[in-house]
Structures are given as C-alpha cells and as structure tokens.
Amino acid sequence: MKEFFTQLRGSIMATVMLAVVCCGIYPVVVYGLGRAFADKADGSIIIDSKGAVRGSKLIGQNFTAAKYFHPRPSSAGNGYDSTSSSGSNLGPTSKKLADAITQNIADYRSQNSLATNAPVPADAVTGSASGLDPHISLQNADLQAPRVAKERGMKVEDVRALINQYTDQPSLGFLGEPGVNVLLLNLALDGVK
Asked: Whole-angstrom Cα distance, residue 40 to residue 13?
C-alpha cells in the first residue's frame, strides 16, 4: 500500500508540474512573443489615417480598375475570399485549366496593350496555391506600369519608383524571388499612408 501512495504522489506531482508548464508558463510565453511581434501576430492589418481597415498586407485583394495594379488570379471561394483559401485543384492535363489560362493570357495582353505574341509572366495568369498571394513578380508589375501611369496621368518612371519602393526582397536575401505587394502599392498610388 505504501508503494501505491508513493506512485500516486509521483503521478499527482507530474500532473501538477505539467499543468503549470502547459497551462501557465507556455501560454504566457506565447502571448508575450505575440505582443513583441504585434504587427505580425495581429495579421499585419493596414489602417488608414481615418482609422478604416484597408486590408492585410499578407492577403491578396482583387483590384480590377485600370488605374490599379492587378493581383494574381484567385480560386479562393468566389475569388480573394480569405475564409476559403484554396487553389483551383485542376491538374496540368485539365482542359478547364488550359482554357482559363489561355483566356487570362488574352485578357492580360489586352488590358496592358501588349502584342498578341508578347510573353506574359506566369504569375499574371495562374493562381497561387492559397489563392490569396499578396505579391506579383517584378516583371508583372513592370508590364502593368505603363497602363497604370496612363490611367493616373503619371510618368511611368514615377510609377516604377513606387514599384521599387513596395518590392519585398527575398527572405534572408536569397530565399525566393523579390515580389511587389499589390495592396501596399495601390494604396500608395491612392495616397493612403
């Protein structure tokens, strides 16, 4: 019986110690780290000078007007639905996918006044795996710059300077490709800080 109470006491002590660590210390540490990196932990929300939420710099949004840079196509929900993040799940042999890409290429060339045989960046006509990628490639942004400059009555060089300003460099300087954050760039064009 003495051995039973010894093991019971050890079990109770282990349970108390794990409860203190898992239900007390760990949540406090995680909360503290969240507050230390509050911008990221809170979703990187962009709030304008009037206090209105304009979006998150981590989630792509749909811009269709000619005066804006257009994001990657999205298959999330009904398009750019952050509650339904997903790709199209269409495979490389899918006729539906091939037709959609062909149409996207034609639309992109038409919108940006490109020749009918001009190369088009892949990110301009295909969606990302999440359907909510906030970035476009530098090549994609560069091809859209003349259209945006014309629609806004700006010089193409000024628009390209903004593109450079809102380009995120690869992680650690070498992981991935540079990308242009479409929401931040479009808000900058609108003069929103």
From this structure: 37
Clarify whether residues 28 and 49 are in a common domain.
no
DSSP-derived letter for residue 166 is T
Is 74 found in the same domain as 24? no
- Within its chain, how far is the Cα of 21 from the centroid? 35
- pLDDT at residue 39, as a whole number: 66
8 A C-beta contact, residue 127 and residue 72: yes
The range of the structural domain enclosing residue 175 comes to 45-189
- The answer to whether 161 and 148 are in contact (CB under 8 A) is no
pTM score, whole prediction: 0.76
Sign of CA dihedral 173, 176, 180, 184: negative
Question: Which residue do the tokens 């799940």 mark?
Answer: 89
Distance (Å) of CA 158 to CA 40, 114, 151 = 30, 21, 13
Residues 49 and 34 occupy one common structural domain: no
Query: Domains in the chain: how many in total?
Result: 2
CA 12 – CA 3 distance, rounded (Å)? 14
* Banded pLDDT at 193 (limits 50, 70, 90): very low
Distance (Å, rounded) from C-alpha 146 to C-alpha 156? 6
Residues 19 and 72 grouped into a single domain: no
* Phi-psi label, residue 46: left if phi above 0, alpha if psi -120 to 50, beta otherwise: beta
d(CA 39, CA 36): 9
